[in-house]
Amino acid sequence: MKTIRTPLDLAINGAAPAFAEPLHVGRPNVGSRDTFMKLAGEMFDRRWFSNNGPLLQEFENRVAAYLGVKHCVAMCNGTIALEIAIRALGLTGEVIVPSYTFVATAHALHWQGITPVFADIDPATHNIDPAAVRRMITPRTTGIIGVHLWGRPAPVDELQAIANEHRLQLMFDAAHAFGCSHKNSMIGRFGRCEVLSFHATKFFNTFEGGAVVTEDDDLADAMRLMRNFGFAGYDNVIHPGTNGKMIEVCAAMGLANLDHIDTVIAANQRNHNTYKLLLDAIPGLEVLGYNNNEHNNFQYVVLDVQEACLRTRDELLAVLVAENVLARKYFWPGVHRMQPYRDLYPHAGLMLPETTELAKRMIVLPTGTTLPDDAVETIAAILEQAIVGST
Ligand code: T4K
């Protein structure tokens, strides 16, 4: 194990940090470089780089089979996939979303002239609170976007009941939840549709990429049109559309990574177990758990720095960064406190006490296949030294 120094030691002595190279949250996992190179080589031979190519079609079929869902419509990224899903569902007016999420969930609405209305979360799950959703419904509400934050399922049944009762559309931002399940059904099969992200920082990536998955034939057809400018064949545009296509080289990366998805999840799970064992033993710290009766991807190691901790979240973050552990404050300070929402709805925070509180406490720690041996133990020792060693 490496020597642990405080930021003060580092400042005074100019000592080297615990890790020579920065450890990033979201360092990309690469399944098989060889498979990727082979598929990319075949792509060059074919001279078919985009527009519904064979790699894209194979990737969509494999993702749909993996999730047990009828349609996978792959896109250039998760944000465009959200925008296209929102448009295909015909959402307008106001749509209820959590504020404790990545900003793309809200931007995908605002970008299309729809008002994101922020509902508070359940502090136990970090997911949108159905009671809060009910409070935010107005005559202008047309839909709800649940987010499966950290890959832990949103309250799917309760949200569906609210949607049915008020005749609202329900879709999910499942950007964190590829490979996760709820009630033994893979996430991807809930609501009218679910949106995945395959960004480089996700445990499973296509460099950039995303998809909408759905059981609904008509919705899938509409989204396939929309992602390709509305073309229904040469010279025949039958719908407004955009360019949301996933390109072949991204599909190749997806195929190369799909073969190794279980290895990546196993590495994430090992890291998560070790972090949880070591950090939960430190007073005032708790690593968020996952339901072991379900499939999880364990891609986010979320550390709750509680009030009882002798150091604040920001103090611990400074200690970690000084040691080259580039942990993150996801999703601080809450989307409602980012622009344009901060100016548009300056009082939104009044309805979001749990979001405000939680966003102050969380740190996301590095994980994945690229972590050096013993890195988790070293990170835990850094935190222990900063908290217990300081008493
Ligand atoms: N909905 C939700 C709930 C989401 O979390 C996201 C994306 C979306 C929707 C939208 O999906 P996409 O349109 O992105 O497909 C990162 C990701 O860019 C973003 O995809 C992700 N969520 C979000 C949670 O994290 P930032 O602003 O933290 O990215 P950045 O550039 O700071 O990178 C994060 C860390 O990863 C850094 O420490 C560097 C490291 N990194 C990054 C890249 C790109 C690498 O080591 N290698 C790389 O290639 O948003």
TrEMBL record:
Stored Pfam families: DegT_DnrJ_EryC1
Coiled-coil residue windows: none
Entry keyword 4Fe-4S: no
Signal peptide: none
GO molecular function, one term: transaminase activity
Modified residues (N6-(pyridoxal phosphate)lysine): 202
Family per record: Belongs to the DegT/DnrJ/EryC1 family.
Protein name: dTDP-4-amino-4,6-dideoxygalactose transaminase
Organism: Luteibacter rhizovicinus
